[in-house]
Write a structure and sequence with these properties.
595 residues; DNA primase DNAg catalytic core, N-terminal domain; 4 domains; 6-stranded mixed beta sheet; 23 helices; globular; nucleotidyltransferase
Protein backbone atom coordinates (compact mmCIF):
# COMPACT_ATOMS: atom_id res chain seq x y z
CA UNK A 1 0.00 0.00 0.00
CA UNK A 2 1.22 3.50 -0.80
CA UNK A 3 0.35 4.80 2.64
CA UNK A 4 2.63 2.31 4.33
CA UNK A 5 5.90 2.85 2.52
CA UNK A 6 8.23 5.55 1.30
CA UNK A 7 11.23 5.81 -0.95
CA UNK A 8 9.93 2.98 -3.14
CA UNK A 9 10.25 4.16 -6.72
CA UNK A 10 7.82 3.74 -9.60
CA UNK A 11 9.08 3.30 -13.16
CA UNK A 12 8.12 6.36 -15.16
CA UNK A 13 10.03 6.08 -18.41
CA UNK A 14 12.80 3.85 -19.63
CA UNK A 15 15.48 5.51 -17.52
CA UNK A 16 13.63 7.68 -14.99
CA UNK A 17 11.72 6.95 -11.82
CA UNK A 18 9.07 8.72 -9.75
CA UNK A 19 9.71 8.26 -6.02
CA UNK A 20 6.74 6.67 -4.30
CA UNK A 21 7.23 9.08 -1.40
CA UNK A 22 6.24 11.83 -3.85
CA UNK A 23 3.20 9.88 -5.04
CA UNK A 24 2.08 9.43 -1.43
CA UNK A 25 2.55 13.12 -0.68
CA UNK A 26 0.61 14.01 -3.84
CA UNK A 27 -2.33 11.75 -2.90
CA UNK A 28 -2.38 13.26 0.58
CA UNK A 29 -2.57 16.77 -0.84
CA UNK A 30 -5.24 16.32 -3.50
CA UNK A 31 -8.89 16.00 -2.60
CA UNK A 32 -10.76 13.63 -4.92
CA UNK A 33 -13.87 15.81 -4.65
CA UNK A 34 -11.93 18.75 -6.14
CA UNK A 35 -10.35 16.54 -8.81
CA UNK A 36 -13.65 15.11 -10.05
CA UNK A 37 -15.71 18.29 -9.59
CA UNK A 38 -13.54 20.04 -12.19
CA UNK A 39 -14.84 17.59 -14.82
CA UNK A 40 -18.14 16.34 -13.40
CA UNK A 41 -20.17 18.80 -11.26
CA UNK A 42 -20.92 17.09 -7.96
CA UNK A 43 -23.82 17.58 -5.55
CA UNK A 44 -23.77 16.98 -1.79
CA UNK A 45 -25.58 13.77 -0.85
CA UNK A 46 -25.24 13.17 2.89
CA UNK A 47 -21.64 12.41 3.77
CA UNK A 48 -20.75 11.85 0.09
CA UNK A 49 -21.19 13.57 -3.28
CA UNK A 50 -23.12 12.31 -6.28
CA UNK A 51 -23.50 12.89 -10.02
CA UNK A 52 -24.60 11.14 -13.15
CA UNK A 53 -21.78 8.79 -14.08
CA UNK A 54 -19.37 10.22 -16.68
CA UNK A 55 -18.56 6.71 -17.92
CA UNK A 56 -22.02 5.57 -19.03
CA UNK A 57 -25.32 7.24 -19.92
CA UNK A 58 -27.86 7.45 -17.11
CA UNK A 59 -30.68 9.74 -16.02
CA UNK A 60 -30.51 9.31 -12.24
CA UNK A 61 -27.19 9.63 -10.36
CA UNK A 62 -25.50 6.38 -9.35
CA UNK A 63 -21.95 7.81 -9.28
CA UNK A 64 -20.76 8.61 -5.73
CA UNK A 65 -17.58 10.22 -4.42
CA UNK A 66 -16.44 9.66 -0.83
CA UNK A 67 -14.34 12.50 0.66
CA UNK A 68 -13.58 10.29 3.66
CA UNK A 69 -12.34 7.25 1.77
CA UNK A 70 -11.04 9.33 -1.17
CA UNK A 71 -12.48 7.13 -3.90
CA UNK A 72 -15.32 7.18 -6.42
CA UNK A 73 -17.72 4.36 -7.22
CA UNK A 74 -20.56 3.93 -9.73
CA UNK A 75 -23.25 1.46 -8.78
CA UNK A 76 -24.44 1.38 -12.36
CA UNK A 77 -21.34 0.46 -14.35
CA UNK A 78 -18.95 -0.52 -11.55
CA UNK A 79 -16.39 2.22 -12.27
CA UNK A 80 -14.36 3.02 -9.16
CA UNK A 81 -10.92 4.17 -8.08
CA UNK A 82 -8.82 6.98 -6.62
CA UNK A 83 -7.95 10.43 -7.98
CA UNK A 84 -5.25 8.87 -10.17
CA UNK A 85 -7.66 6.25 -11.51
CA UNK A 86 -10.28 8.89 -12.39
CA UNK A 87 -7.79 11.03 -14.30
CA UNK A 88 -6.50 7.97 -16.17
CA UNK A 89 -9.94 6.74 -17.20
CA UNK A 90 -11.70 10.07 -17.78
CA UNK A 91 -8.89 11.69 -19.75
CA UNK A 92 -7.39 8.51 -21.18
CA UNK A 93 -3.96 9.22 -19.66
CA UNK A 94 -1.21 6.85 -18.63
CA UNK A 95 -0.34 6.46 -14.94
CA UNK A 96 2.69 8.74 -15.25
CA UNK A 97 0.78 11.44 -17.16
CA UNK A 98 -2.00 11.29 -14.57
CA UNK A 99 0.55 11.85 -11.79
CA UNK A 100 1.93 14.89 -13.65
CA UNK A 101 -1.59 16.23 -14.19
CA UNK A 102 -2.52 15.91 -10.51
CA UNK A 103 0.78 17.46 -9.43
CA UNK A 104 0.08 20.48 -11.61
CA UNK A 105 -3.31 20.93 -9.89
CA UNK A 106 -1.68 21.40 -6.47
CA UNK A 107 1.44 23.24 -7.64
CA UNK A 108 3.89 20.37 -7.13
CA UNK A 109 6.79 19.42 -9.39
CA UNK A 110 7.24 15.73 -10.12
CA UNK A 111 10.80 14.70 -9.23
CA UNK A 112 12.65 12.31 -11.49
CA UNK A 113 15.32 9.88 -10.38
CA UNK A 114 17.71 8.53 -13.00
CA UNK A 115 17.94 4.76 -12.94
CA UNK A 116 21.44 3.37 -12.73
CA UNK A 117 21.69 -0.38 -13.15
CA UNK A 118 25.10 -0.40 -11.41
CA UNK A 119 23.67 1.07 -8.22
CA UNK A 120 21.83 -1.05 -5.64
CA UNK A 121 18.04 -0.79 -5.50
CA UNK A 122 16.74 2.10 -3.39
CA UNK A 123 16.26 1.35 0.28
CA UNK A 124 12.65 0.70 1.25
CA UNK A 125 11.32 2.17 4.46
CA UNK A 126 8.07 0.49 5.42
CA UNK A 127 5.55 0.86 8.19
CA UNK A 128 5.27 4.66 8.31
CA UNK A 129 1.59 4.76 9.26
CA UNK A 130 1.93 1.67 11.47
CA UNK A 131 4.78 3.32 13.37
CA UNK A 132 2.59 6.36 14.08
CA UNK A 133 -0.29 4.18 15.26
CA UNK A 134 1.99 2.17 17.56
CA UNK A 135 3.33 5.40 19.01
CA UNK A 136 -0.24 6.63 19.58
CA UNK A 137 -1.04 3.41 21.44
CA UNK A 138 2.11 3.84 23.56
CA UNK A 139 1.30 7.45 24.48
CA UNK A 140 -2.27 6.46 25.38
CA UNK A 141 -1.04 3.71 27.70
CA UNK A 142 1.52 6.05 29.29
CA UNK A 143 -1.19 8.58 30.15
CA UNK A 144 -2.82 6.01 32.45
CA UNK A 145 0.51 5.57 34.26
CA UNK A 146 1.10 9.29 34.89
CA UNK A 147 -0.87 10.84 37.80
CA UNK A 148 0.72 14.19 36.96
CA UNK A 149 -0.60 14.15 33.36
CA UNK A 150 -4.02 12.93 34.50
CA UNK A 151 -4.27 15.70 37.11
CA UNK A 152 -3.31 18.28 34.48
CA UNK A 153 -6.15 17.14 32.19
CA UNK A 154 -8.62 17.05 35.08
CA UNK A 155 -7.60 20.59 36.05
CA UNK A 156 -8.44 21.64 32.49
CA UNK A 157 -11.90 20.13 32.93
CA UNK A 158 -11.42 17.08 30.70
CA UNK A 159 -13.26 13.86 31.45
CA UNK A 160 -11.79 10.45 30.78
CA UNK A 161 -14.49 9.88 28.16
CA UNK A 162 -13.51 12.91 26.07
CA UNK A 163 -9.80 12.16 26.47
CA UNK A 164 -10.47 8.63 25.18
CA UNK A 165 -12.54 9.93 22.26
CA UNK A 166 -9.65 12.12 21.08
CA UNK A 167 -7.13 9.38 21.96
CA UNK A 168 -5.18 11.82 24.13
CA UNK A 169 -1.91 10.42 25.46
CA UNK A 170 1.26 11.37 27.28
CA UNK A 171 4.87 11.26 26.12
CA UNK A 172 6.91 10.64 29.29
CA UNK A 173 10.07 12.54 30.15
CA UNK A 174 13.25 10.83 29.01
CA UNK A 175 15.24 10.60 25.82
CA UNK A 176 14.50 7.18 24.31
CA UNK A 177 11.20 5.89 25.69
CA UNK A 178 10.05 4.80 22.24
CA UNK A 179 12.83 2.23 22.18
CA UNK A 180 10.57 0.03 24.32
CA UNK A 181 8.00 0.13 21.47
CA UNK A 182 10.43 -0.07 18.56
CA UNK A 183 13.35 -2.42 19.28
CA UNK A 184 14.81 -1.31 15.93
CA UNK A 185 15.17 2.25 17.16
CA UNK A 186 17.47 3.01 14.21
CA UNK A 187 14.67 2.33 11.70
CA UNK A 188 14.48 5.19 9.22
CA UNK A 189 10.66 5.14 9.38
CA UNK A 190 10.83 6.61 12.90
CA UNK A 191 12.73 9.69 11.75
CA UNK A 192 10.65 10.11 8.60
CA UNK A 193 7.46 9.87 10.68
CA UNK A 194 8.79 12.58 12.99
CA UNK A 195 8.86 10.37 16.07
CA UNK A 196 12.64 10.33 16.48
CA UNK A 197 15.20 13.10 15.96
CA UNK A 198 18.84 12.61 15.04
CA UNK A 199 21.34 15.32 16.01
CA UNK A 200 24.55 16.31 14.22
CA UNK A 201 26.53 13.77 16.22
CA UNK A 202 24.24 10.97 15.01
CA UNK A 203 22.57 10.48 18.41
CA UNK A 204 18.86 9.61 18.21
CA UNK A 205 16.22 10.61 20.74
CA UNK A 206 12.43 10.94 21.03
CA UNK A 207 11.00 14.12 19.54
CA UNK A 208 8.16 14.38 22.09
CA UNK A 209 9.08 14.34 25.79
CA UNK A 210 6.95 15.23 28.84
CA UNK A 211 4.02 16.46 26.76
CA UNK A 212 0.30 15.80 26.51
CA UNK A 213 -0.07 14.13 23.12
CA UNK A 214 -2.87 14.78 20.62
CA UNK A 215 -2.92 12.37 17.65
CA UNK A 216 -3.71 14.03 14.31
CA UNK A 217 -5.94 11.96 12.00
CA UNK A 218 -6.41 12.11 8.25
CA UNK A 219 -9.81 11.94 6.57
CA UNK A 220 -9.74 8.14 6.86
CA UNK A 221 -9.15 8.26 10.62
CA UNK A 222 -5.53 7.11 10.42
CA UNK A 223 -2.90 8.70 12.67
CA UNK A 224 -0.61 10.84 10.49
CA UNK A 225 1.11 12.99 13.11
CA UNK A 226 1.01 14.44 16.62
CA UNK A 227 0.69 17.67 18.49
CA UNK A 228 2.32 17.86 21.90
CA UNK A 229 1.41 20.39 24.61
CA UNK A 230 3.62 21.18 27.57
CA UNK A 231 2.45 20.45 31.11
CA UNK A 232 4.94 22.75 32.75
CA UNK A 233 4.00 26.34 31.70
CA UNK A 234 7.67 27.36 31.80
CA UNK A 235 8.61 24.91 29.04
CA UNK A 236 8.71 26.01 25.42
CA UNK A 237 7.35 25.85 22.86
CA UNK A 238 3.84 25.61 24.23
CA UNK A 239 2.69 23.48 21.27
CA UNK A 240 5.02 21.24 19.26
CA UNK A 241 3.83 19.51 16.08
CA UNK A 242 5.16 16.64 14.01
CA UNK A 243 7.27 17.84 11.07
CA UNK A 244 6.06 17.67 7.47
CA UNK A 245 6.15 14.06 6.24
CA UNK A 246 4.83 12.13 3.21
CA UNK A 247 1.68 11.57 5.28
CA UNK A 248 1.31 14.94 6.99
CA UNK A 249 1.25 18.50 5.62
CA UNK A 250 0.24 21.16 8.12
CA UNK A 251 -1.37 23.40 5.51
CA UNK A 252 -3.73 20.61 4.42
CA UNK A 253 -4.88 19.03 7.70
CA UNK A 254 -7.16 20.22 10.49
CA UNK A 255 -7.03 18.83 13.99
CA UNK A 256 -10.28 17.17 15.04
CA UNK A 257 -11.95 17.18 11.59
CA UNK A 258 -12.28 13.41 11.37
CA UNK A 259 -14.15 13.27 14.69
CA UNK A 260 -16.12 16.47 14.07
CA UNK A 261 -17.59 15.66 10.64
CA UNK A 262 -21.00 14.42 11.83
CA UNK A 263 -21.37 17.26 14.36
CA UNK A 264 -20.41 19.81 11.66
CA UNK A 265 -23.08 18.46 9.33
CA UNK A 266 -25.68 18.36 12.11
CA UNK A 267 -24.92 21.93 13.25
CA UNK A 268 -24.56 23.25 9.69
CA UNK A 269 -21.36 25.04 10.66
CA UNK A 270 -17.69 24.48 11.46
CA UNK A 271 -15.87 26.40 14.17
CA UNK A 272 -12.14 27.03 13.60
CA UNK A 273 -10.10 27.68 16.76
CA UNK A 274 -6.39 28.06 17.46
CA UNK A 275 -5.35 25.11 19.67
CA UNK A 276 -5.87 21.42 20.38
CA UNK A 277 -7.04 22.10 23.92
CA UNK A 278 -9.70 24.49 22.57
CA UNK A 279 -11.11 21.71 20.36
CA UNK A 280 -11.11 19.13 23.14
CA UNK A 281 -12.48 21.52 25.79
CA UNK A 282 -15.32 22.64 23.54
CA UNK A 283 -16.21 18.99 22.86
CA UNK A 284 -16.30 18.45 26.63
CA UNK A 285 -19.08 21.05 26.78
CA UNK A 286 -21.04 19.61 23.85
CA UNK A 287 -19.65 21.86 21.11
CA UNK A 288 -18.29 19.08 18.93
CA UNK A 289 -18.03 20.90 15.59
CA UNK A 290 -14.72 22.65 16.34
CA UNK A 291 -11.40 22.08 14.52
CA UNK A 292 -7.97 23.70 14.75
CA UNK A 293 -5.24 24.62 12.28
CA UNK A 294 -1.96 22.85 12.98
CA UNK A 295 0.55 25.51 13.92
CA UNK A 296 -0.04 27.44 10.71
CA UNK A 297 -2.49 30.03 9.40
CA UNK A 298 -5.77 28.78 7.94
CA UNK A 299 -5.17 28.00 4.26
CA UNK A 300 -7.45 27.78 1.18
CA UNK A 301 -7.06 23.98 1.44
CA UNK A 302 -8.52 24.12 4.96
CA UNK A 303 -11.44 26.24 3.76
CA UNK A 304 -12.15 23.89 0.85
CA UNK A 305 -12.10 20.86 3.17
CA UNK A 306 -14.56 22.51 5.54
CA UNK A 307 -16.93 23.65 2.78
CA UNK A 308 -17.30 19.97 1.89
CA UNK A 309 -18.91 19.56 5.32
CA UNK A 310 -20.92 22.77 5.88
CA UNK A 311 -21.87 26.11 4.32
CA UNK A 312 -20.91 28.18 7.36
CA UNK A 313 -17.45 28.59 8.87
CA UNK A 314 -16.86 30.65 12.02
CA UNK A 315 -13.31 31.59 13.02
CA UNK A 316 -12.87 32.06 16.75
CA UNK A 317 -9.70 33.81 17.91
CA UNK A 318 -8.38 35.26 21.13
CA UNK A 319 -8.99 38.97 21.49
CA UNK A 320 -5.30 39.82 21.94
CA UNK A 321 -3.00 41.15 19.21
CA UNK A 322 -1.78 37.67 18.26
CA UNK A 323 -5.38 36.49 17.84
CA UNK A 324 -6.30 39.47 15.69
CA UNK A 325 -3.25 38.95 13.50
CA UNK A 326 -4.17 35.28 13.05
CA UNK A 327 -7.77 36.26 12.18
CA UNK A 328 -6.67 38.65 9.42
CA UNK A 329 -4.34 36.06 7.93
CA UNK A 330 -7.18 33.52 7.97
CA UNK A 331 -9.50 35.99 6.24
CA UNK A 332 -6.96 36.73 3.50
CA UNK A 333 -6.18 33.05 2.95
CA UNK A 334 -9.88 32.26 2.70
CA UNK A 335 -10.56 34.70 -0.15
CA UNK A 336 -9.56 32.41 -3.07
CA UNK A 337 -11.84 29.63 -1.74
CA UNK A 338 -14.83 31.92 -1.15
CA UNK A 339 -18.11 31.00 -2.88
CA UNK A 340 -21.49 32.74 -2.89
CA UNK A 341 -23.04 29.89 -0.93
CA UNK A 342 -20.44 30.07 1.85
CA UNK A 343 -20.86 32.15 5.00
CA UNK A 344 -17.60 33.13 6.72
CA UNK A 345 -17.65 35.02 10.01
CA UNK A 346 -15.26 36.00 12.80
CA UNK A 347 -15.69 35.83 16.56
CA UNK A 348 -13.29 37.69 18.85
CA UNK A 349 -13.33 36.76 22.51
CA UNK A 350 -12.36 39.16 25.33
CA UNK A 351 -8.57 39.58 25.68
CA UNK A 352 -8.43 37.54 28.87
CA UNK A 353 -10.13 34.51 27.27
CA UNK A 354 -9.57 31.75 24.75
CA UNK A 355 -12.35 29.30 23.73
CA UNK A 356 -11.22 26.83 26.40
CA UNK A 357 -11.46 29.30 29.29
CA UNK A 358 -14.57 31.05 27.93
CA UNK A 359 -16.69 27.92 27.64
CA UNK A 360 -15.58 26.74 31.09
CA UNK A 361 -16.57 30.05 32.67
CA UNK A 362 -19.79 30.85 30.76
CA UNK A 363 -20.96 27.48 29.39
CA UNK A 364 -22.19 26.21 26.03
CA UNK A 365 -25.32 28.37 25.68
CA UNK A 366 -23.46 31.66 26.10
CA UNK A 367 -20.63 30.54 23.81
CA UNK A 368 -23.01 29.52 21.02
CA UNK A 369 -24.86 32.83 21.37
CA UNK A 370 -21.53 34.54 20.68
CA UNK A 371 -21.02 32.32 17.63
CA UNK A 372 -24.39 33.34 16.18
CA UNK A 373 -23.51 37.02 16.50
CA UNK A 374 -20.06 36.65 14.89
CA UNK A 375 -18.97 39.32 12.41
CA UNK A 376 -19.47 38.48 8.68
CA UNK A 377 -16.36 38.43 6.49
CA UNK A 378 -17.27 41.52 4.42
CA UNK A 379 -17.96 43.56 7.56
CA UNK A 380 -14.70 42.36 9.11
CA UNK A 381 -12.69 43.33 6.01
CA UNK A 382 -14.19 46.83 5.88
CA UNK A 383 -13.77 47.34 9.63
CA UNK A 384 -10.12 46.22 9.48
CA UNK A 385 -9.29 48.48 6.53
CA UNK A 386 -10.92 51.53 8.12
CA UNK A 387 -9.71 50.83 11.68
CA UNK A 388 -6.80 53.26 11.47
CA UNK A 389 -8.14 55.26 8.55
CA UNK A 390 -10.63 58.12 9.23
CA UNK A 391 -11.52 58.31 5.49
CA UNK A 392 -11.80 62.09 5.79
CA UNK A 393 -9.31 63.31 3.22
CA UNK A 394 -8.68 62.41 -0.41
CA UNK A 395 -5.39 60.82 0.66
CA UNK A 396 -7.20 58.67 3.24
CA UNK A 397 -9.59 57.36 0.61
CA UNK A 398 -6.78 56.69 -1.90
CA UNK A 399 -4.94 54.65 0.74
CA UNK A 400 -8.17 52.80 1.51
CA UNK A 401 -8.63 51.94 -2.18
CA UNK A 402 -5.01 50.82 -2.52
CA UNK A 403 -5.40 48.43 0.42
CA UNK A 404 -8.81 47.16 -0.74
CA UNK A 405 -7.80 46.51 -4.36
CA UNK A 406 -5.68 43.33 -3.84
CA UNK A 407 -8.39 41.94 -1.56
CA UNK A 408 -11.15 42.46 -4.13
CA UNK A 409 -8.97 40.95 -6.84
CA UNK A 410 -8.86 37.63 -4.99
CA UNK A 411 -12.62 37.20 -4.64
CA UNK A 412 -14.04 35.33 -7.62
CA UNK A 413 -17.51 34.61 -6.15
CA UNK A 414 -19.65 37.03 -8.24
CA UNK A 415 -22.28 38.11 -5.71
CA UNK A 416 -19.93 38.37 -2.75
CA UNK A 417 -17.45 40.34 -4.85
CA UNK A 418 -20.13 42.70 -6.19
CA UNK A 419 -21.51 43.63 -2.76
CA UNK A 420 -18.03 44.17 -1.31
CA UNK A 421 -17.10 46.39 -4.28
CA UNK A 422 -20.27 48.41 -3.77
CA UNK A 423 -19.44 49.05 -0.08
CA UNK A 424 -15.81 49.91 -0.87
CA UNK A 425 -16.94 52.39 -3.54
CA UNK A 426 -19.37 54.04 -1.09
CA UNK A 427 -16.67 54.44 1.57
CA UNK A 428 -14.26 55.84 -1.04
CA UNK A 429 -17.02 58.20 -2.26
CA UNK A 430 -16.92 56.83 -5.80
CA UNK A 431 -19.49 55.28 -8.08
CA UNK A 432 -19.08 51.60 -8.93
CA UNK A 433 -18.18 52.51 -12.54
CA UNK A 434 -15.57 55.03 -11.39
CA UNK A 435 -13.94 52.51 -9.11
CA UNK A 436 -13.98 49.83 -11.81
CA UNK A 437 -12.26 52.27 -14.19
CA UNK A 438 -9.59 53.09 -11.60
CA UNK A 439 -8.81 49.60 -10.35
CA UNK A 440 -7.79 46.39 -12.09
CA UNK A 441 -10.57 44.10 -10.96
CA UNK A 442 -11.57 40.81 -12.62
CA UNK A 443 -14.70 40.63 -14.76
CA UNK A 444 -17.52 39.12 -12.70
CA UNK A 445 -19.68 38.34 -15.76
CA UNK A 446 -17.23 35.84 -17.23
CA UNK A 447 -19.05 32.75 -18.52
CA UNK A 448 -18.31 29.63 -16.44
CA UNK A 449 -16.25 26.86 -18.01
CA UNK A 450 -18.31 24.04 -19.44
CA UNK A 451 -17.78 20.56 -18.14
CA UNK A 452 -16.17 18.10 -20.52
CA UNK A 453 -18.55 15.87 -22.48
CA UNK A 454 -19.22 12.49 -20.96
CA UNK A 455 -17.14 9.60 -22.15
CA UNK A 456 -18.77 6.36 -23.19
CA UNK A 457 -18.33 3.23 -21.16
CA UNK A 458 -20.04 -0.11 -21.42
CA UNK A 459 -22.07 -0.74 -18.28
CA UNK A 460 -20.44 -3.51 -16.28
CA UNK A 461 -22.85 -6.37 -15.70
CA UNK A 462 -23.66 -7.72 -12.26
CA UNK A 463 -22.14 -11.05 -13.27
CA UNK A 464 -18.86 -9.46 -14.38
CA UNK A 465 -18.51 -7.43 -11.16
CA UNK A 466 -19.18 -10.54 -9.11
CA UNK A 467 -16.64 -12.53 -11.17
CA UNK A 468 -13.93 -9.87 -10.90
CA UNK A 469 -14.22 -9.70 -7.13
CA UNK A 470 -14.06 -13.50 -6.97
CA UNK A 471 -10.86 -13.43 -9.04
CA UNK A 472 -9.42 -11.05 -6.43
CA UNK A 473 -10.71 -13.20 -3.54
CA UNK A 474 -11.29 -16.78 -4.81
CA UNK A 475 -11.60 -18.03 -1.23
CA UNK A 476 -15.02 -16.31 -1.07
CA UNK A 477 -16.53 -18.46 -3.84
CA UNK A 478 -19.39 -20.78 -2.77
CA UNK A 479 -20.83 -23.83 -4.52
CA UNK A 480 -24.32 -22.42 -3.92
CA UNK A 481 -23.40 -19.54 -6.26
CA UNK A 482 -23.63 -21.95 -9.20
CA UNK A 483 -27.31 -22.54 -8.47
CA UNK A 484 -28.03 -18.84 -9.05
CA UNK A 485 -26.94 -18.98 -12.70
CA UNK A 486 -28.90 -19.65 -15.83
CA UNK A 487 -27.79 -22.29 -18.34
CA UNK A 488 -28.73 -20.11 -21.30
CA UNK A 489 -27.22 -16.70 -20.40
CA UNK A 490 -23.76 -15.84 -21.80
CA UNK A 491 -22.86 -13.62 -18.83
CA UNK A 492 -23.88 -16.40 -16.47
CA UNK A 493 -21.81 -18.89 -18.48
CA UNK A 494 -18.66 -16.81 -17.99
CA UNK A 495 -19.36 -16.38 -14.28
CA UNK A 496 -19.92 -20.16 -13.98
CA UNK A 497 -16.41 -20.75 -15.34
CA UNK A 498 -14.96 -18.21 -12.88
CA UNK A 499 -16.75 -19.75 -9.90
CA UNK A 500 -15.64 -23.27 -10.82
CA UNK A 501 -12.00 -22.15 -11.22
CA UNK A 502 -12.13 -20.30 -7.87
CA UNK A 503 -13.60 -23.34 -6.11
CA UNK A 504 -10.73 -25.45 -7.47
CA UNK A 505 -8.02 -22.87 -6.64
CA UNK A 506 -9.27 -20.89 -3.59
CA UNK A 507 -5.82 -19.59 -2.64
CA UNK A 508 -4.43 -18.65 -6.07
CA UNK A 509 -3.60 -15.17 -7.29
CA UNK A 510 -5.64 -13.47 -10.08
CA UNK A 511 -2.92 -14.04 -12.67
CA UNK A 512 -2.95 -17.80 -12.01
CA UNK A 513 -6.75 -17.94 -12.18
CA UNK A 514 -6.76 -16.06 -15.50
CA UNK A 515 -4.32 -18.58 -16.96
CA UNK A 516 -6.65 -21.37 -15.88
CA UNK A 517 -9.56 -19.57 -17.54
CA UNK A 518 -7.70 -18.96 -20.79
CA UNK A 519 -8.64 -22.28 -22.37
CA UNK A 520 -12.26 -22.13 -21.21
CA UNK A 521 -13.44 -18.70 -22.37
CA UNK A 522 -13.44 -16.57 -25.51
CA UNK A 523 -9.94 -15.24 -26.23
CA UNK A 524 -11.32 -11.71 -26.66
CA UNK A 525 -12.76 -11.68 -23.14
CA UNK A 526 -9.48 -12.37 -21.31
CA UNK A 527 -7.75 -8.99 -22.03
CA UNK A 528 -10.95 -7.22 -20.94
CA UNK A 529 -10.93 -9.09 -17.63
CA UNK A 530 -7.24 -8.24 -17.13
CA UNK A 531 -7.93 -4.53 -17.73
CA UNK A 532 -10.94 -4.47 -15.41
CA UNK A 533 -8.94 -6.18 -12.66
CA UNK A 534 -6.34 -3.40 -12.74
CA UNK A 535 -9.12 -0.84 -12.18
CA UNK A 536 -10.44 -2.51 -9.03
CA UNK A 537 -9.87 -0.22 -6.06
CA UNK A 538 -7.86 -1.74 -3.20
CA UNK A 539 -9.57 0.59 -0.70
CA UNK A 540 -12.97 -1.03 -1.30
CA UNK A 541 -14.19 -3.72 1.06
CA UNK A 542 -14.35 -6.45 -1.59
CA UNK A 543 -15.95 -8.95 0.78
CA UNK A 544 -18.79 -6.53 1.51
CA UNK A 545 -19.13 -5.62 -2.18
CA UNK A 546 -19.21 -9.29 -3.12
CA UNK A 547 -21.85 -10.05 -0.49
CA UNK A 548 -24.02 -7.27 -1.93
CA UNK A 549 -23.53 -8.59 -5.48
CA UNK A 550 -24.44 -12.09 -4.28
CA UNK A 551 -27.70 -10.74 -2.85
CA UNK A 552 -28.44 -9.10 -6.21
CA UNK A 553 -27.74 -12.39 -8.02
CA UNK A 554 -30.11 -14.15 -5.63
CA UNK A 555 -32.78 -11.53 -6.37
CA UNK A 556 -32.30 -12.01 -10.11
CA UNK A 557 -32.51 -15.79 -9.64
CA UNK A 558 -35.76 -15.43 -7.64
CA UNK A 559 -37.23 -13.16 -10.32
CA UNK A 560 -36.35 -15.70 -13.00
CA UNK A 561 -38.00 -18.50 -11.03
CA UNK A 562 -41.11 -16.40 -10.46
CA UNK A 563 -41.32 -15.44 -14.14
CA UNK A 564 -40.96 -19.05 -15.21
CA UNK A 565 -43.58 -20.19 -12.74
CA UNK A 566 -45.98 -17.44 -13.83
CA UNK A 567 -45.52 -18.44 -17.45
CA UNK A 568 -46.46 -22.03 -16.63
CA UNK A 569 -49.43 -21.01 -14.48
CA UNK A 570 -50.77 -18.64 -17.15
CA UNK A 571 -51.11 -21.57 -19.57
CA UNK A 572 -53.39 -23.50 -17.21
CA UNK A 573 -57.17 -23.14 -17.22
CA UNK A 574 -58.66 -21.27 -14.24
CA UNK A 575 -60.31 -24.42 -12.89
CA UNK A 576 -56.96 -26.22 -12.71
CA UNK A 577 -55.22 -23.54 -10.58
CA UNK A 578 -54.48 -24.17 -6.93
CA UNK A 579 -55.14 -21.54 -4.23
CA UNK A 580 -51.38 -20.82 -4.00
CA UNK A 581 -51.11 -20.32 -7.76
CA UNK A 582 -54.07 -17.92 -7.81
CA UNK A 583 -52.52 -15.97 -4.88
CA UNK A 584 -49.23 -15.73 -6.79
CA UNK A 585 -50.98 -14.37 -9.87
CA UNK A 586 -52.84 -11.77 -7.78
CA UNK A 587 -49.64 -10.70 -6.00
CA UNK A 588 -48.08 -9.63 -9.31
CA UNK A 589 -51.26 -8.02 -10.61
CA UNK A 590 -52.04 -10.70 -13.20
CA UNK A 591 -55.51 -12.16 -13.51
CA UNK A 592 -56.03 -15.76 -14.68
CA UNK A 593 -58.02 -16.01 -17.87
CA UNK A 594 -60.91 -18.45 -17.98
CA UNK A 595 -60.47 -21.25 -20.51
Amino acid sequence: MLANSIHVVILAKADTLIPESFIQELLNRVDIVDVIDKSVPLKKAGANYSACCPFHNEKSPSFTVSPTKQFYHCFGCGAHGTSVGFIMEYQGLSFVDAIHDLAKMVGMTVPQEVRDSDKPAPKVVVGLQEALQQAANFYKAELKKSPRAIEYLKARGLSGQVAAKFQVGYAPAGWQNLQSVFPQYENEALTVAGLVVENEQGRRYDRFRDRIMFPIHDQKGQVIGFGGRVINPEDTPKYYNSPETPLFQKGHELYGLFLARRAIRDAGRALVVEGYMDVVALAQYGIEYAVAALGTATTPYHITKLTRQADEIVFCFDGDNAGRTAAWRAAMNALPALTDGLKLSFLFLPKEHDPDSYVREFGKEKFEAEIKSAMPLSQYILQHLSEDNPLQSQEDRVRFLNEAEPIMQQISAPRSAMYLRKKVAELAQLSADEMQALLKLPNLNKAPMKAKPKLTRTTMSLQKRFGLMLLMHPELAQEDDLELLSERDDADALLRQVIEICLLHPHSKPAVLLRELESKIDANVLPELQRELTLLDDTLDHAQELAGARQQLQAVHTQRQSASLLARISEKPLSALTADEIALLKSVGSKPQPK
